[in-house]
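WARN retry 2 of 3 for item q-0093 after timeout on previous attempt; input resubmitted unchanged.
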Amino acid sequence: MSPETLLAMRDPLGAPIHPLAVQALLVITFVLHIFFITASVGSLLLGLYGLNKGEENWQRASKVAIRVATQTLGLGITMGIAPLLFVQVIYDPAWYVATTLMGLWTVLFIPLVALGYLFLYVLYLRGNVAGVGYVSLALLLLAGFVMHSLANAGLYPSRWVEWYAPGGVVHTTGERLLGYNLPRFAALLFGQAGLSLGVILLLFAWYFRRREDVPQAFLRFVEGLAQGALRVGAGIYGLLGLLWAFTQGAELGLGWPVAVVVLAVAALFYLHAGRARAENALATLGLYLGALLVVALLREGLRVSALGRYGYSAMQYPYVWDWGSILFFVATAVAAVPVIVYLAQVLYASGTRKEGADPSPRVEAFGDVGVKLLLGWFAFYFALGLYVVVRNL
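OK item q-0093 returned
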C-alpha cells in the first residue's frame, strides 16, 4: 500500500473541524467507553463466580455484580458510539478497509452485542441461571475481539493487499479475523476488567456506607473484594502488557514506551490496592481515570506511529470549518450536560436512604434549567434544519 493510495482514500470533503479536536475527543470518549465496558466484563465474571458460592455475602455480592454488569454494559455501548464516529472522521481509510476485509464480522458485531446484552438482562432478571450468563459472556467477549481485530487491522496497510488477495486469489467472504494481537486484547480487556471492577466495588461500598439497612460486614466484604480485584487486575495487566509491548509494541517501534506505561499502571494499582478504602473511592476513581487516559494516549500513539510510516497523519487531514455541524455539536453538549448531571443527582439522592429521598431545592432548580435548555435545543434543531432546507431550495 503506497502512501499516495492511502492518502487518496481520505474523504474528499474533509473533516468538519480541525483534526486535533477530533483526535482529542476520540481519546477522551474512549476512556469513558472502555471504563464501562471493562467494568461490565469484570462485574459479570464476579457475578458468575459468586453464583457458585454458598455464603450469604457471596450470594449478595453476586446479585450486586450482575446488576452492575447490566447497567455498565448499557453505558459502555452508548459511550462506544462516540469514539467509533471520531475514528471514521480522521482514520477513515484504515477503518473502512478493515471493515471491508472482515465484512462478515462487521455485520455480525451488532447482533453479537445485542444478544449478549439480552442474555445478560435475562440473568439479571432471573438471577439463578448461570448458563445464560456464560452465553452472554462468550458473546460479549467475541464482540470485543471483533472490534479489537477491526481496530488492529487498520494499523497494517502493508498487509491489506495480501489479506484481500492471499496468493493472488481474491478472498471476498470476510469471515477471517485479521490483525489481532492476543496479549493486547487480553491485557486491555481482562487486566482492565479487574481494575475497573475494583473501582466499581469501592464506589458501591462508599455509596452505601451510610445506609442503615446495608450490613457493615457486607460492605467490608465488598471492600476486600475490591482490593483483591485491583491486585489481580494489576497482575494480569503487567504480565500480558509486557507481552503486548514486546510483540505489537516492538513491531510498531514503541515497545519500550508500552512496557513502561503498562508496568507503571500495574505497579501503581497493585501498591494502591492495600490502601484502597471505601472512604477514598472517589480518589481511586480519579486515579484510575487518569491511568486510563494515559493508556488511551499510548493506544493512539501506536496508531499514529503505524500509519505515520506510510505518510499518513491525522493532523494533515483536510478540513473545512462546518459551522452548522459545530454549532449543533456545541448546542447538544450545552443542553445535554445539565440534564445528565440533574438525573445523576436525582439518582444519587434517591438511593441514600432505604425509603428514598427527594433531591434538594438547588438540584430541582438545576433540573429546571436543564429542561429549559433541552427545549431550546429542540427549537435550535428544527430552526437549523429549516434554514438548511430553505437555503437549498
